[in-house]
């Protein structure tokens, strides 16, 4: 196995994930098979219990792993299906070591960070890198490892030490270290400053790792003399100083790397020159340029719990982007804090209330994404009602589907007490209920998680037509509550149709509303499997409906002309 390790210095939030996945893209374009590992040095076992409003969204994998959002980047950029073990955390490593200690596997030895934790890290990396994740058999050629955090953080020390040892045992031809750093411009003089990078490289070298490459983030392209300085002071050859300056969209990053011949230098470092071909990035060039030149946009109202940190809904945003590009449109996402739509807000914050409603009314479609807890639920119900009554295309994801069910029960069935037991444990009409297999005491890894099959009940539904599959849909789940099977009969009398159910027939997965241009709710999260160039079917449906093209699209596919 050949390893490409990507570390970060100076500050966090440099786009290390995008850099690492772009390196993967370039290597893949050279004909190599690539896998990836993300190391998160925090103590959480996984990202499942972390707040998306602090840490960004929780990404869900096929196997039900709740992982860091960077794994989403890898899946999308490299078109992979990763496993939960591709995300290593301090929590997971300690858990495995402590379990072995309790079993007595260490035979009376004192269990220590070095060598036991570091050995566990090395073993984990070696075994996970061998798992095929690209649909082919056998291990990949290259494993890109991204070390989260910045070099020098106390919690990443055991990982740095383990990676140093891994480098030593893998040998120089099998290891390539790329350090992502920041070159800021300060003051009126506007000079590109290399000192922060020098310091962080020095820190890395003090820990026994010398970077082979620098990937410098900067606003403008690096000047020749900045590069020379970096080369001289950081002990990195000039040809290995890569520059990722700001670009109009992230799909330019692999192109930027190729332009700087990063692939040649990395292949040389990994002694892979003879097996690789020149990188074919035609698809990326087309996508990056097409996006830059798009002029028309479509307004999408995103009605969520909080809207401060857009990373909280990262995969939804990406899925909208993929769908819009397929329709030659730029997404214009209008963020609406659901609570601003509520009557209460009209009294407390009238300006925010009227602005929220104006934004909603000016949008071409409405999306209510997944979420937990009761904040903003009333506002989401109002948004779903507005979309239903005004025939505005609506996509409700997970919580968004449950919202539709509550809304229909209250407005159409007249059940005033309809609610989810998540928000009101003693709701007189519990239309969304806790799933029997859930745990009430443990939050982590206790939901219905990962890829599950949904059986379509009829081929004559918009979902079947968009997925081009009359029988089933495989998508990823992450929920604790479900539609109460006892109220399905009543709900179906209102015009809602549960067109997708799980294999038992008891669990509602997809709802559609008749006599509406596009009103779909899904218990799963279609956003996780959306890819650039392969947009998620339901997101595509939403955008097509928002722009009046859905019918034509469905017809042309039925005739087999596209
Ligand atoms: N809170 C809801 C549930 O647990 C919805 C979850 C979600 O939207 N991911 O079922």
Q: Which short descriptors sum up this protein?
A:
alpha/beta, binds glutamine, pyrimidine biosynthesis, globular, 562 residues, EC 6.3.4.2, 37% helix, CTP_synthase_N, ligase, nine-stranded mixed beta sheet, ATP-binding, seven-stranded parallel beta sheet
Please provide a written account of the structure.
- One of its GO terms (molecular function) is ATP binding.
- One of its GO terms (biological process) is 'de novo' CTP biosynthetic process.
- Its EC number is 6.3.4.2.
- It catalyses: UTP + L-glutamine + ATP + H2O = CTP + L-glutamate + ADP + phosphate + 2 H(+).
- 50% of the residues are buried.
- The chain starts with a strand and ends with a helix.
- The chain contains 20 helices and 23 strands.
- Helix 4 crosses helix 5 (113-129) and helix 15 (377-389) packs across helix 16 (399-411).
- With 562 residues, the chain is α/β, with parallel strands linked by helices.
- Bound molecules: glutamine.
- Residues 370-372, 398-399, 422, 478-481 line the site of glutamine (GLN).
């Amino acid at each position: 196995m050949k390893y490409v390790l990507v570390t970060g210095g100076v500050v966090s939030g440099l786009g290390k994930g995008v850099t690492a996945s772009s390196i993967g893209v370039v290597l893949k374009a050279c004909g190599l098979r690539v896998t990836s590992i993300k190391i998160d040095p925090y103590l959480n076992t996984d990202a499942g219990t972390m707040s998306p409003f602090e840490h960004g969204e929780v990404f869900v994998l096929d196997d039900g792993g709740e992982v860091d959002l960077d794994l989403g980047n890898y899946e999308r950029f490299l078109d992979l299906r990763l496993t939960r073990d591709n995300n290593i955390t301090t929590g997971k490593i300690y858990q495995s070591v402590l379990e072995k200690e309790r079993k007595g596997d260490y035979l009376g030895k004192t269990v220590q960070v070095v060598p036991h934790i570091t050995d566990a890290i090395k073993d984990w990396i070696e075994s996970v890198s061998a798992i095929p994740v690209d649909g082919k058999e056998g291990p990949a050629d290259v494993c890109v490892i991204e070390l989260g955090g910045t070099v020098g953080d106390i919690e990443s020390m055991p990982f740095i030490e383990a990676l140093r040892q891994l480098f030593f045992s893998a040998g120089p031809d099998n290891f390539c270290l790329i350090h992502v750093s920041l070159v800021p411009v300060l003051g009126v003089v506007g000079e590109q400053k290399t000192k922060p990078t020098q310091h962080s490289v020095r820190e890395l070298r003090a820990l026994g790792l010398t970077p082979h490459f620098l990937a410098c983030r900067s606003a403008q392209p690096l000047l020749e003399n900045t590069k020379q300085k970096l080369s001289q002071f950081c002990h990195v050859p000039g040809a290995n100083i890569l520059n990722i300056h700001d670009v109009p969209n992230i799909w330019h990053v692999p192109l930027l790397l190729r332009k700087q011949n990063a692939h040649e230098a990395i292949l040389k470092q990994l002694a892979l020159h003879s097996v690789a071909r020149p990188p074919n990035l035609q698809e990326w060039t087309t996508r990056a340029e097409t996006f830059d030149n798009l002029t028309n946009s479509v307004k999408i109202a995103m009605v969520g719990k909080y809207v401060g940190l857009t990373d909280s809904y990262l995969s939804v945003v990406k899925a909208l982007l993929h769908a819009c590009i397929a329709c030659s449109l730029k997404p214009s996402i209008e963020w609406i804090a659901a609570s601003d739509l509520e009557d209460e807000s009209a009294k407390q914050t009238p300006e925010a209330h009227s602005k929220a409603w104006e934004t909603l009314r000016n949008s071409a479609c409405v999306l209510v994404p997944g979420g937990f807890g009761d904040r903003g639920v009333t506002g989401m119900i109002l948004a779903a009602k507005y979309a239903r009554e005004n025939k505005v295309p609506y996509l409700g994801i997970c919580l968004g589907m449950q919202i539709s069910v509550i809304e229909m029960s209250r407005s159409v069935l007249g059940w005033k007490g309809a609610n989810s037991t998540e928000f009101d444990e003693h709701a007189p009409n519990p239309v969304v209920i806790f799933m029997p297999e859930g745990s009430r005491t443990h939050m982590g890894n206790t939901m219905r998680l990962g890829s599950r099959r949904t059986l379509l009940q009829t081929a004559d539904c918009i979902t079947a037509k968009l997925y081009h599959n009359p029988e089933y849909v495989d998508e990823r789940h992450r929920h604790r509550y479900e539609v109460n099977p006892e109220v399905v009969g009543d709900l179906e009398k209102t015009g809602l149709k549960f067109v997708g159910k799980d294999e038992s027939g008891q669990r509602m997965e997809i709802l559609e509303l008749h006599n509406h241009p596009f009103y779909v709710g899904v218990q799963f999260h279609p956003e996780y499997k959306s890819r650039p160039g392969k947009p998620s079917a339901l997101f595509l449906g939403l955008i097509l409906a928002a722009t009046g093209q859905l019918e034509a699209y469905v017809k042309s596919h039925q005739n087999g002309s596209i």
